[in-house]
Amino acid sequence: MIARTRSDGTALLRLSLYSIQRERRQHILIQIKMIVYGSYLSQPTRLVLWTCALRNIPVELKRVDAGAGEQRTPEFLKMNPNAVFPVLEDKSSGFILYESNAIARYLCGETSNLYPKDAKVRALVDQWLEWKHGALRQGCAGIVRRRVMKNLMKDYTKHSMAQVFVEVKEEREARQVLEALQILEDQLAKTKSYLVQGTSEPTLADLAVFEEVEQLRMLPSTEGAPFGSKLDDKFPNVVSWQGRLRQLPKYDEIHKDLIMTVKKLEQMRQKSSKM
Ligand SMILES: N[C@@H](CCC(=O)N[C@@H](CS)C(=O)NCC(=O)O)C(=O)O
Fold first, then answer.
1. What is d(CA 129, CA 92) in angstroms, rounded to the nearest whole number?
2. Which of 18, 60, 176, 227 is the most buried (most CB within 10 A)?
3. pTM for this structure?
């Protein structure tokens, strides 16, 4: 694609650059074999998208609007009867997979620094992935949904949180957040680096747990946990670990919507004392 020198050379050059960009885009689209259904504001979706980004797996995100109930359409329920995202569609084989931890492991293939092959290290990564679902997520996602997401959504009655709020008390979620953060703090005080003892690089365990803690940024920055995002006083090791993970490639791209929402919330809070 060589630009010719003529009186209209600039236009030709622009045309050539345009077709190079178009070819590149088409090339990327042909390469894309993975489709992720989800949202950048969803922690499990970010885990999956960040894993793809760090593994250089081309992926297309098909956004699901939970406020519009798009996770409950018959087409979506065919992929995941639990009506939650993310869902992965591997276009090369038509393979469909839900549950973010399972998806992230699948994306790591046989071996990856994110999911090392050594049986004990792998088991410890799994341990923290299970812990994230069982101990951390309920409190972190619970408080953020209750305090923030509910107010950001046009209609949250189509989200499962509408039901959960009736069944789960806020005090329980607050206690779960504090207990889980303390466990994390104690572990990171021991390892001084990443969650799994002896790993010098982050693993899926760090990414998954990080996403749950990172969403707390949507809570007021003036208050401490459980209802605010200020963690420095009580959880200094968690805060420095978060700082290390934010240095990883593609952090900005994957967390763009979250950071924008944090800014928007701060502005909203300055205007109103609610939230
Ligand atoms: N265990 C699931 C949790 C998925 C999940 O809770 N997804 C939320 C978004 S962060 C969702 O789809 N919410 C919609 C709803 O609950 O109605 C996973 O890790 O994939």
1. 27
2. 176
3. 0.89
Who lines ligand 1 at CB under 6 A? Answer: 42-44, 66, 71, 83-86, 99-100, 159-160
Q: Helix (H, G, I), strand (E, B), or coil: what is residue 96? A: strand
Report DSSP state, residue 3.
Answer: P
The neighbour count for residue 131, using CB atoms within 10 Å, is 19
Amino acid present at 171: E
Beta strands in 26-177 (DSSP E): 34-38, 59-63, 87-90, 95-98
119-248+255-271 fold? Glutathione S-transferase Yfyf (Class Pi); Chain A, domain 2 (1.20.1050)
DSSP E strand stretches across the chain: 34-38, 59-63, 87-90, 95-98
One-letter identity of residue 119: A
260: tokens are 């924008």
User: What residue's CA is closest to ligand 1, atom 16?
Assistant: 160
User: For the chain, what's the residue count?
Assistant: 275
Instruction: Note the pLDDT tens digit of each residue in 169-202.
Output: 999 999 999 999 999 999 999 999 999 998 999 9
Spatial CA neighbour of 84 closest among 106, 101, 100 = 100
